[in-house]
Amino acid sequence: EINDLTKKVCGLLGKAVNTLNNVAKAGFQGRAGNGLLFLKARAEELTIEKTKDILGLKNT
Predict the structure, then answer these.
(1) Residue 60 lies in a domain
(2) Start-end of H helices in the chain
(3) Which of 12, 25, 34, 52 has a CA positioned 20 to 30 A from the CA of residue 41?
(4) Residue 58 domain-assigned (yes or no)
């Protein structure tokens, strides 16, 4: 289940990175950079939350 989650997160991040790279090419490098930082942080949060849930470590 953790491997499936990792694959999904990586796949979604890859799509988001491509989109943000296109945003940067369109002349909005600052916004694209901020978007990438936000996505990275949020993906890490969600992965940690889901992993804790899978392992039964809620509220830790």
Answers:
(1) no
(2) 2-25, 29-55
(3) 25
(4) no
pTM above 0.85, yes or no: no
Contact 5, 50 (CB under 8 A): yes
Give the number of domains in the chain. 1
Quote the domain boundaries for residue 17. 2-53
Query: pLDDT tens digits, the chain, 60 residues: what are they?
Result: 677 877 887 888 888 888 888 888 888 888 888 888 888 888 888 878 888 887 887 665
Burial of residue 4 (CB within 10 Å: 0-12, 13-18, 19+) is exposed
